[in-house]
């Protein structure tokens, strides 16, 4: 298995920690993504690569009929345990187990970069109704916060973060031009240890060897225990959610 495939499949080994320590998504980002549909009524929404249900839970809370599709068994089990009122199905973005034109919006949270784009985009187009929306979103630490930038540098490993340019990727005949928006968010952490536990749920941490991981963890902990922003009790880590949306055109 190559590194890309190993990383894409790495999250399940830490599924429980993932569910406990990863952030959720801002409601404003979900609402913005759905704006082109022109209604706030209950919609048929698909959370593709749903993981343990971080985004799924937000979609359910907004009152939508949600189908969650996730290939990793351990991640899907966590989702089923934690998120109710959702139809949860095993499946991949390249072969979505949902009939043609039955979905109003496909959401992808921090996972679009793992897909085989050439196969996934036509599949997403197939399940969407004409006029439906594809929304790909990510969560990143706020690059304008000095201590956080320093912390991010410290948490780098021999494996780099994975990301494509979504606008370029979404340039596909089944979809209109992609629009982009950024939403502020925070991730509440109780302690430096909980912050390090969060970072350890990223694939670049999951696929490195134990020795490298231990060294990076020591550096991160030392930093967080010394910084005034993070050394004492609960603190909010400033995040931003980048969202790209595009509308399924009629053929
Ligand atoms: C970083 S996690 C994001 C999970 C969730 N959407 C969230 O925001 O927390 C990436 C997820 O993509 C899934 N994944 C990887 N390759 C995939 C593929 N080809 N099709 C669908 N899901 C995939 C992984 O199993 C993992 O659950």
UniProtKB/TrEMBL annotation:
| Superkingdom assignment | Bacteria
EC main group? transferase
Q: Which CDD domains match?
A: AdoMet_MTases (cd02440)
Task: Say yes or no: keyword rRNA-binding present.
Answer: no
Question: EC number(s) in its UniProt entry?
Answer: 2.1.1.-
An annotated Gene Ontology molecular function: methyltransferase activity
Methyltransferase type domain boundaries: 46-135
What keywords is this UniProt entry annotated with? Methyltransferase, Transferase
Q: What InterPro entries does the database record attribute to this sequence? A: Diverse_substrate_MTase, Methyltransf_11, SAM-dependent_MTases_sf
What's a Pfam family this protein contains?
Methyltransf_11
Q: Which GO terms describe its biological process?
A: methylation
Q: Where do the TM regions start and end?
A: none
Q: Which residues form the signal peptide?
A: none
User: Which family does the record claim for this protein?
Assistant: Belongs to the methyltransferase superfamily.
Q: What is this protein called?
A: Class I SAM-dependent methyltransferase
Q: Upper taxonomic classification of the species? A: Bacteria, Bacillati, Actinomycetota, Actinomycetes, Pseudonocardiales
